[in-house]
Design brief:
Belongs to the GMC oxidoreductase family. Keywords: FAD, Flavoprotein. About 25% of the residues lie in helices and about 20% in strands. Strand 15, helix 9 and strand 16 form a beta-alpha-beta unit. The longest helix has 19 residues. The chain is globular, with a radius of gyration of 22 Å. The model has no long low-confidence stretch (mean pLDDT about 95). It binds flavin-adenine dinucleotide.
Length: about 550
């Protein structure tokens, strides 16, 4: 049997799948059993797990293009997608806590969503994150032990065997950064020299304690990006019960009373409706999901009234609780140019800003080329250098997504509100201090001539922190699960007060996980599909 998740056109599979999908698109049904909105990290998982059952018809709707592009498939080219039609290109509101700066907030658009434009780092989240989700929802299925089982089922781990933590038979090819740059090894040595423990891989024991350093795990296979779409959906794209619609925007969910019965879509300039006989799953990401809910009449009643949108269900938490990791990059100049390898981010470090913490609150990803903010770039960017993307893993600041109007084609208002909580500024000071200590360690001396940003000997003040702050692109939390008044979905991901509508994407996280967010989004997709299969007896 050919492995259709492997890169390349295995055994003519790709041509077959393309022809099949063209035929499906030309002959759209009026009703599908399931409609999955958004083919990103979570949506790809949900669609695959439902369509595995030949008795279910599944329609997967994606606003962006397919993923057949070198900028997607070549791991080194990820930055070239930013600002293109593969990026929603959100712009946050000017933020007084960042000296009025308005951050750009990229999010993936196209098959794979974020997993087709991201840096390919695979990070599970900390034990304390998952146990927190179980406590918030009162559902042990979200706890660390349960989620560990899901991760073992997801992964096809290529590193040193570690049966307690790593699976080897799942759909997602995860490998340790292959042939990493010596600058990544220098980070491991430097951190170890400062007493930070080093681990063989970052997705096991390291995610249970106070932190550590390791080479990154990556979704790269045979030198090509292995997005979650490629891992999950592409191998079944020739199945008769799966229809994948690209370049199609879901404008709103349609209801019969409080029962979700279909979606209104825009495709090639025309608007139409498609029905779901069983359920609709929204997986449109943490900015577009609250937008879609509000456009559909699910949200804060005052907010909806302001825009003249009839209220289907008053849920004041929709769009609230926006969270994101924020990073403060420091940059060093190479003595001799060192070309980035893999995705250019091959080592990862978690540590804590205060000794009394029992879990990490800092997240560092090394980037093997300079990535300053637009402000810190003014300090002078070396032609050849590297940046430590040093950020807050557990920020306290919360933002909000709102609608500008009832017009689905308008961008939403993204109030990211980073550094609004003074505790974040305090952690940021410790974060930048540790980052500079690591960068000036002896381990880097063979490779680095000088710190350029903020600059050797420069005293770092809060103004530098506000100028350096940028998003880690880990937006989440805007339709959180739980049972309090501000929660939007229950532990089974069903929208409170509504039948036939579930949310499965980063929006449902009550708080951002400690680490990069695509792996937790894959878990959310697996959980959503488990729940649906169980409830529907599939
Ligand atoms: C530049 C960048 C780098 C990143 N690096 C990493 C990394 O290295 N490691 C990591 O773990 N995470 C990384 N992330 C974050 C990670 O990719 C996201 O957290 C993750 O993809 C979120 O998954 P999701 O399912 O919530 O949403 P997404 O993956 O964003 O998927 C949402 C999908 O829905 C589609 N959609 C939205 N609205 C509509 C609509 N109305 N109709 C139809 N379709 C719609 C979108 O086009 C998109 O395809 C990065 C993100 C970016 C942008």
């Amino acid at each position: 049997m050919t492995d259709a998740s492997a890169p390349g056109d295995t055994g003519g599979f790709e041509r077959r799948a393309r022809e099949h999908q063209a035929e499906r698109k030309a002959n759209l049904e009026t009703t599908y059993d399931f409609i999955v909105c958004g083919a990103g990290s979570s949506g790809s998982v949900v669609a695959r797990r439902l369509a595995e059952n030949p008795a279910c018809s599944v329609l997967l709707i994606e606003a962006g293009p397919d993923d057949e592009a070198e900028s997607v498939l070549d791991p080194a080219l990820w930055p070239t997608n930013l600002g293109t039609d593969r990026d929603w290109g959100f712009q946050a509101e000017p933020n007084p806590h960042l000296d009025g700066r308005a951050l750009s907030m990229s999010m993936g658009k196209g098959l794979g969503g974020g997993s087709s434009v991201n840096v390919m780092v695979w990070a599970r989240g900390h034990r304390s994150d998952w146990d927190h989700f179980a406590a918030e929802t009162g559902d042990p299925n979200w706890n660390y032990a349960s989620v560990l089982d899901i991760y073992r089922r997801i992964e096809n781990w290529q590193g040193q065997p570690d049966a307690k933590y790593r699976g080897t038979t799942g759909p997602v090819w995860v490998q340790p950064a292959k042939g990493p740059s010596p600058i990544a090894g220098a980070l491991l040595d430097a951190a170890e020299g400062l007493g930070i423990p080093r681990f063989d891989h970052p997705n096991g024991e390291m995610m249970e304690g106070v932190g550590g350093v390791a080479y990154a795990d990556m979704l790269v296979r045979e030198g090509r990006r292995q997005s979650l779409y490629r891992a999950y959906v592409r191998p079944i794209a020739d199945h008769p019960n799966l229809t994948i619609l690209t370049e199609t925007v879901v404008r709103r969910v349609l209801f019969d009373g409080r029962h979700a019965i279909g979606v209104e879509i825009e495709r090639a300039g025309s608007i139409s409706a498609i029905k779901a006989s069983t359920e609709i799953v929204i997986s449109t990401g943490a900015i577009n999901t609250p937008k879609l809910l509000m456009l559909s009449g699910v949200g804060d009643r005052d907010e909806l009234a302001r825009l003249g949108i009839p209220v289907i269900q008053h849920l004041p938490g929709v769009g609230r609780n926006l969270q994101d990791h924020v990073s403060f990059g420091c940059t060093w100049e190479y003595r001799e140019p060192l070309a980035p390898r893999n995705s250019g981010s091959e080592a990862t470090l978690y540590w804590k800003s205060r000794p009394d913490l029992t879990a990490p609150d800092l997240l560092f990803c090394q980037v093997e080329f300079p990535v300053p903010s637009e402000r810190t770039a003014l300090l002078g960017v070396p032609d050849h250098g590297w940046t430590m993307f040093a950020g807050l893993a557990q920020p306290h600041s919360r933002g909000r997504i709102r609608l500008k109007s009832a017009d689905p084609s308008e961008m939403p208002v993204v109030d990211a509100n980073m550094l609004s909580d003074p505790r974040d500024l305090e952690a940021a000071r410790a974060c930048v201090k540790l980052c500079r200590e690591i960068g000036s360690s002896d381990a880097f001396k063979p490779f680095v001539s000088a710190e350029r940003i903020p600059g050797t000997g420069r005293q770092v003040d809060d103004a530098f922190i506000r100028d350096a702050a940028v998003t880690y692109w880990h937006q989440c939390g805007t339709a959180k699960m739980g049972s309090d008044d501000m929660s939007v979905v229950d532990p089974k991901l069903a929208v409170h007060g509504i039948a036939g509508l579930r949310i499965a994407d980063g929006s449902v996280l009550p708080r951002v996980t400690t680490g990069n967010t695509q792996a937790p989004c894959a878990v959310i997709g697996e959980r959503a599909a488990d729940i649906l299969r169980h409830l529907q007896g599939l």
